[in-house]
Specification:
This protein is an alpha+beta fold. The chain contains 11 helices and 9 strands. Bound molecules: phenylalanine.
Length: 343
């Protein structure tokens, strides 16, 4: 009887196909071909109904057995393949060569600005200073007016300002605005250090950027003199450059919010007889400083007859460039990984 032959040949074909299946995809093909509703075994089942009752009795059990065995074999094979797959995966995980070359991992680190700011803050914290900050988007009053730079004052031309379309608002041109904000909030004695970004409308080149970093210090107390200012700055530079004998010098300088005002130079920490950093002069310009102008104290309501103080401002960008030998200021804000990975 031909249906019996069919059962045999489908059984053989199924076994063969199952043996050949080596992965989930070929196994699925086997299931579709033989075990699914449109599969070969279902086809035989459908043919059963056309048989005579005796044949049905004869062939029915054979067919049921085939179906049952095929399904069992299929499940076994499926489990076996899954186990093999897991074992192969495990082998890949465990059989690694600890001496093998690994590509360098990308790990993050602090930007050179942040590193220098932290060093700077640590030195001033150790001298009893408080770390403060203020907004980058400032108003005319805190950036100029209260710093003794009135509307009509020619000193406004010293700093090319980014004015906003909002009336009286600007991107701060220096961190000195934080002096005002702090003195508005706190009564003397006070000693603060603030660092942050400043903005000036300048054409950029290797040593000028329109955004740069400054550090600003302010100390207000009774009987504060230039001597205190100079001693503080000298101690600071000595600590930061780890040179106990490093000297500073001052030249007269004009900033409307200090009187007297000075420009501060530091002995070049990199050479004995002149180098490219100090342009063979042995001195490096570090910033401005002076005794807080009585007008400034007046603006914030501090009695200038009772209190005096000093302020200093430093270009941190310059500082970072000096410390790390960076020759183009634009690199600092470039976000270039090749550059940043060196620090
Ligand atoms: N704010 C000044 C500048 O940006 C620097 C300065 C700060 C000078 C404090 C004196 C005192 O040029």
């Amino acid at each position: 009887m031909s249906i019996k032959n069919n059962i045999n040949s489908i059984e053989t074909a199924f076994k063969q196909a199952l043996a050949n299946a080596q992965d989930a995809q070929t196994l699925e093909e086997v299931r579709l071909k033989f075990l699914s509703r449109q599969g070969e075994i279902a086809g035989l089942m459908a043919a059963l109904k056309d048989l005579s009752p005796e044949d049905k009795r004869d062939v029915g059990p054979l067919l049921n057995k085939l179906k049952q065995q095929a399904e069992e074999a299929f499940t076994q094979k499926k489990d076996a393949l899954e186990i093999m797959r897991i074992q192969a995966e495990d082998a890949q995980r465990t059989a690694f060569d600890v001496t093998a070359y690994t590509p360098k991992r990308l790990t993050g680190h602090l930007h050179p600005y942040t590193q220098v700011i932290e060093q700077l803050e640590n030195v001033f914290i150790s001298m009893g200073y408080q770390i403060t900050d203020g907004p980058e988007l400032e108003d005319d009053y805190h950036n100029f007016q209260a710093l003794n730079i009135p509307d009509t004052h020619p000193a406004r031309d010293m700093q090319d300002t980014f004015w906003l379309t909002l009336p009286g608002k600007l991107m701060r041109t220096h961190v000195s605005s934080v002096q005002i904000r702090t003195m508005e909030q706190q009564q003397p004695p006070l000693a603060i250090l603030a660092t942050g970004r400043c903005f000036r409308n300048e054409a950029t080149d290797a040593s000028h950027d329109f955004v740069f970093m400054q550090a600003e210090g302010l100390l207000i107390d009774k009987n504060i003199s230039m001597g205190n200012l100079l001693a503080t700055l000298e101690a600071f530079f000595q600590a930061i450059f780890e040179r106990k004998d490093l000297k500073i010098r001052t030249r007269p300088g004009y900033f409307p919010f200090v009187e007297p005002g000075v420009e501060v130079d530091m002995e070049c920490p990199f050479c004995q007889h002149g180098c490219s950093v100090c342009k063979k002069t042995r001195w490096v310009e570090m910033g401005g400083a002076g005794l807080v102008h009585p007008n400034v104290l007046h603006y914030v309501g501090i009695d200038a007859n009772q209190y005096t103080g000093f302020a200093f401002g430093m270009g941190l960008t310059r500082f970072v460039m000096l410390k790390y030998g960076i020759n183009d200021i634009r690199l600092l804000n470039s976000g270039k990984l090749d550059f940043l990975r060196q620090f």
